[in-house]
Amino acid sequence: MTDLRFAGIGMTSARTRDRLVQRLREQGITNLAVLERMRNVPRHIFVDEALSSRAYEDTALPIGFGQTISQPYIVARMTEALLEYGPVDKVLEVGTGCGYQTAVLAPLVGRLYTVERIAPLVERAKARAKELDLRNVRFKHGDGHLGWKAVAPFDGILVAAAPLTVPEALLKQLRVGGRLIVPVGPEGQQELIRFTRREQKIDRVSLGPVSFVPLLGGIA
Questions:
Q1: How many whole angstroms separate alpha carbon 157 and alpha carbon 7?
Q2: pLDDT at 10
Q3: Which residue out of 13, 53, 70, 211 is catalytically annotated?
Q4: Angle, helix 32-40 to helix 72-83, in steps of 10 degrees
Q5: Strand ordering across the sheet containing 190-197
Q6: What is d(CA 36, CA 62) in angstroms, rounded to the nearest whole number?
Q7: What's the CA gap between 148 and 146, in Å, rounded?
């Protein structure tokens, strides 16, 4: 990949990305490391070329297979929520999609494990991670409801699609003190929630209304 493709031109240029970061600040994102990742990750390489001029709009865009790349604000908000109480070493991402959230998150954590149910999206995300030289990411083609038991427990879990109820397996794969960031509920009634595992209980905090594609079971 050429440096020009990373850098972008016109509607994918650095100036356009700066405007996106300014909008994120205005929407309440304050974590400087997260804002820097949002500026530096070339979102336009994660969407079809026909949509690249819209890559830095604060909107979800289609990536095929009935899936979307999340709007930048949601990616920043979820990442910030995961990191709010300090560094996070071992993280599971459920719903790799095109790999954009993966690319934003990877340099901010120690080790990132990511699961995607749709095989072509796994391959696409792997290719983007290689191009961006993200060396701390492991990919799995699997059912996100099940998490990744073989490498659990996790310090953090971030879910990029909405289950109707929180999968019990994900809660069980959190270490004590670990945080799960997940949108929950049916379409039109979804809420972003942060669960924190304690010794004897699990704390729940609402982070506000959101809209995600559903978290489906099985693999494709």
A1: 30
A2: 52
A3: 70
A4: 140
A5: 137-141, 111-116, 90-94, 154-159, 174-184, 190-197, 202-210
A6: 24
A7: 6
Domain boundaries, the chain: 61-210
Q: What does the alpha-carbon distance between residue 189 and residue 184 come to, in Å, rounded to a whole number?
A: 8
The residue type of 189 is: Q
Which residues are within 8 A (CB) of 57 and not within 5 positions of it... i.e. 6 or more apart? none
Element (H, E) at 103: helix 100-105
Here the tokens at position 177 are 């003190």
Q: Which residues pair with 204 in a beta bridge?
A: 195
* Three-state secondary-structure class, residue 142: coil
The answer to whether residues 105 and 126 touch, using CB atoms and an 8 Å cutoff, is: no
Q: Which residues pair with 157 in a beta bridge?
A: 92, 180
Rounded percentage of the chain residues whose pLDDT exceeds 90:
82
Angle formed by the axes of helices 14-26 and 72-83, nearest 10° = 60
Query: pTM of whole model > 0.90?
Result: yes
Query: Is 73:58 a contact under the CB 8 Å cutoff?
Result: yes
Give the pLDDT mean for 78-84: 96
CA 154 distance to own-chain centroid: 16
Active site (annotated) includes residue 13: no
Pairing of strands 67-69, 61-64: antiparallel
Residue 218, CB-side half-sphere exposure with 13 Å CA sphere: 1
pLDDT in tens, 167-201: 999 999 999 999 999 999 999 999 999 999 999 99
The CATH architecture assigned to 61-210 reads: 3-Layer(aba) Sandwich (3.40)
